[in-house]
Amino acid sequence: MIWKKHLPIAKPMKNFHGETILLPNIEQHFPELEALQWHRQNIFQA
To answer: pLDDT tens digits for the chain (46 residues)?
Structure first.
């Protein structure tokens, strides 16, 4: 993946399981629930 070249300290999302995430200070910038659901169904499959 290209982004790994730019972020050598990045770790896979599954490594964050159980950790608290920080949301943006402005609710308008929160992720859309539909986008999160899509990612759960299509990307973060176990």
So the answer is: 455 555 556 677 777 788 887 889 999 999 899 998 898 888 877 5
